[in-house]
From TrEMBL:
This is Uncharacterized protein. It comes from Pseudogymnoascus verrucosus.
Length: 129
């Protein structure tokens, strides 16, 4: 599936044009598609179509692997992980910290970007001795 129309619609233009916007304007546009203001982000948000489309902005596969695409992905990841608070079950923390991927499909550590994390203990995964 070609996601060019979706990314074009979110950015308001092609990525090569978006990168030419004044540096102070780009975060405002990205923020609208990447930040959830009303609570925590959890796994259910991956199924919320309106919010989940923002993932396209965080992946080189969709934004392009040229310098413009890489810069937009970098800025999008910084906003997404830095401006949201994530609700993560304790047994899923390891997976969460490597849930994003590089253009080559290899896992990417998101820990340096994350500023808000709510760690939830799930009693179903606690071993009782």
């Amino acid at each position: 599936m070609d996601h060019g129309n979706e990314t074009h619609q979110m950015l308001g233009c092609h990525p090569s044009e978006f990168i030419k916007f004044v540096i102070e304007e780009r975060p405002k546009i990205l923020w609208r598609h990447l930040v959830k203001e009303d609570g925590y982000i959890d796994d259910d948000d991956n199924y919320n179509k309106e919010f989940a489309e923002g993932v396209l902005l965080r992946r080189e596969r969709f934004m392009g692997d040229d310098e413009s695409g890489k810069q937009i992905v970098k800025e999008a990841r910084e906003i997404y992980y830095g401006e949201n608070t994530f609700s993560v079950e304790s047994h899923c923390l390891r997976v969460f910290l490597i849930r994003d991927t590089r253009a080559d499909g290899k896992p990417m550590a998101v820990e340096p970007f994350v500023s808000g994390l709510l760690l939830c203990a799930d009693s179903r995964h606690i071993k009782h001795g």
